[in-house]
Amino acid sequence: MLVVSHPELKGLFAETLENSLQNAGLSFEWTLFPSGEAQKNLSTVYGLYDACAQAHIDKKNAVVALGGGVVQDTSNYLAATYLRGVPFIQIPTTLLSQVDAGIGGCAVDHPTGKSLIGQFYQPRAVIMDSSTLKTLPKNELVNGIAEIINKVICLGGSRTDGFNQDIRAIINGDENKALDYVKSSNKVKLGIIERDETGTNETRFLLDWGHTITYALERTLNYSISHGRALGIGMHGAAVLSQQLGYLSRDKVRELKQAIEDAGLPAELPVHVDNDKLINYMCLDQKVVARRKRFVLLRDFGDAFVSEGIDDNQITSCLDEIRERPIA
Length: 328
Hints:
About 50% of the residues lie in helices and about 10% in strands. It has about 325 residues and is of the alpha/beta class. The strands form three sheets. The protein has a five-stranded parallel β-sheet with strand order 2-1-3-4-7.
């Protein structure tokens, strides 16, 4: 098998993983690439194809992804396309990748937009080990909490009561609390994917809640903002748009914004980000039909739906409302 990871993660986890594989009588090789969203592209995938060939990976040999979201997405796409599909095993090591494991699909970036090139390819197994979270700095834990808010509260409909206390517990190293939320998040995601694995009836698009603005913002800022921080802004924006269009109450918008900010995430759009650039990148969103931009909106927590086409003036109004106010 081929273990795909980053150099830093091999240093942290090589001994544990290698002992497990050797005890199971499995042979393996490592291939490593630098960390960061800038590596989640076809150029990295082509390099990994070379590693697969050199390791003689075949239909009986697995690609094992040890790492966060970039490693998971890139390795998943590799496994889906090398030899038209080889076995794939996920070992996500960050909170974000554990609460949003690549069950149901993977994607890599293109210069014109984020996550434009992808596949629907299921892993043979996903191994969650909450002890890996001990190695993460606080900002990485906060990054993952964005996806917890996304799945558990917004899509799953869980109450926000006590959430702030749970966040502090996770950041302070409570593995059991983190594992509870990992399970809850994946239960929500699986529930959607099992109804529509490939997006045929658009139910799967519900997983895009909050991501329309998020992806556009990440690309506009050339990935200098983390996914979790961008998602905090994206969820707030989608909630405001839901309210402006008459679906979601102002109280729910305020409640969501409070949860985002309590997690240490931003909810407001940076003052210098250009609306036109954001809207331009939204043109490449997977939900676009006949050049009409569509969003996942909320009627309430746990009640999401895919909108009809939304015009640029409505989107601009939403972006203006969530923008940071410059200091006088």
